[in-house]
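Annotated sample (chain length 379).
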Amino acid sequence: MSLRTLPLLFINLGGEMLYILDQRLRAQNIPNDKAKKVMNDIVSTMFNKKFMEELFKPQELYSKKALRTVFDRLAHASIMRLNQASMDKLYDLMTMAFKYQVLLCPRPKDLLLVTFNHMDAVKEFVRDSPSILNQVDETFRQLIESYSCLPFGEFQLIRQTLLIFFQDLHIRVSIFLKDKVQNSNGRFVLPVSGPVPWGTEVPGLIRMLNHNGEEVKQIEFPTIGNYTSALAEGSLNLFGDRIIKLGTNMYSVSRPVETHMMGTMKSSAVRAKENAAPNPLAKEELNLLARLMGGLDVKKPVGNESGFRLNLFGTDEEEDHAATISPPELSEVVNIQAIKDRQQHEELLRIMGEFCEQEQQPRHSCSKGDDLLAMMDNL
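Output written by the structure step:
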C-alpha cells in the first residue's frame, strides 16, 4: 500500500462533498449569505494549515470508520447541521463519485488531474475570500511539489490502494443509473471506447521488429471499441487545462441525486462482528486521528447568527424514512467529532480499556489513551 494516498483521498472526497452541499444549499433556497458562509467555513477548515501538515505526512489510510468521523466533523464546521440520515447519504454520494473517477482514470497519474479539477472548483467556491483562497493555493502548491515528480509506479500503487479502500462499496446512485454507467447491483460499467491514455497509441496495430530493433512488418487487427488518440496531456500546473473531465461538478438543481443500499454490501451481522473485534492498530489510529482533527472546530452560531439544518432528501418524510431503514452498521461510528457528551466519553474509555486489558500492563501504560481523551475533550 502507498503511504502517499491519504491527501488525494481526502481532497477528492472533500471536493465531492462541496459539490453536493452547494447543490443542496441552492435547492433548499438557503439565503446567499448563509450559503456562502457555510462553503467558506468548510473550505477554510478543510485547508487549515495544521490540518494539511498532518495530512501530508506519509501514513497508511485510515479505516472507513475513522475517515467518516473526519468528514462528519468537517461537514459541521459551520452553522449548517445534518442529521444522521442526510450525513449517511452525503458520504455515500462522495465515496461512490470518487470511486467512479478512480476506476475511469486513463492513467494512474491522471488521479492528480482529477484532484486538480476538484481544487479548481474549490477555488471558484471561495473566489471572493482572498485569505481562504490563499489557503487553497498553498495546498495546491504542496500537491504539485509532493506528487508531480513521482514515478508512474508510485501512482499505480496509489491507485491500487484507493481501489482496495473502495472495493466493498456498491451503493447505487441515481445519476449513474440513469446514465447507464452503473448496473442495478451497484457495480460500475467501464467503457471500451474513447480516448486512450496520453502517451499510448490507438490499439489495432502489431509491429514486428528484427534483432536490431528495426520494424520489418505490420499486422492490423480489429478492436471491439472505437478508440481515439488523446488530444493533449492535462496541465499539472497551478493554472491550466486539465483536459479530462473526471472530478468536475456533475450536480445541478434540476438533477436530484438518490442513493440506494445494495445487498452486495456486508451483512449487518458480519459488520457488527468486525466492529466488536478489537483492532490492534486502533489506539495508534485514534492518536493520529486526534492530531489530524486538531484543526477541525465545530462552529456554533454567535450573536444573532442562526444555524440551520440541511436535508439531502427531497422532503423531511423521506429523510425520516431513510433513518429508519438505514443498516445499523452505517450508524455505528465512534463519535469523536460533533458533540462532547457522556456517550462519547464512555465509548473512548471502553476502547482504551480494551487496549489496557490486552496489553496486561500497569495503569500508566495507557498514558497515550489518557492523553487522547484529554485532546478530544479540548476539541
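Annotation: The chain has a mean pLDDT of 78.
Annotation: Residues 346 and 352 are 10 Å apart (CA to CA).
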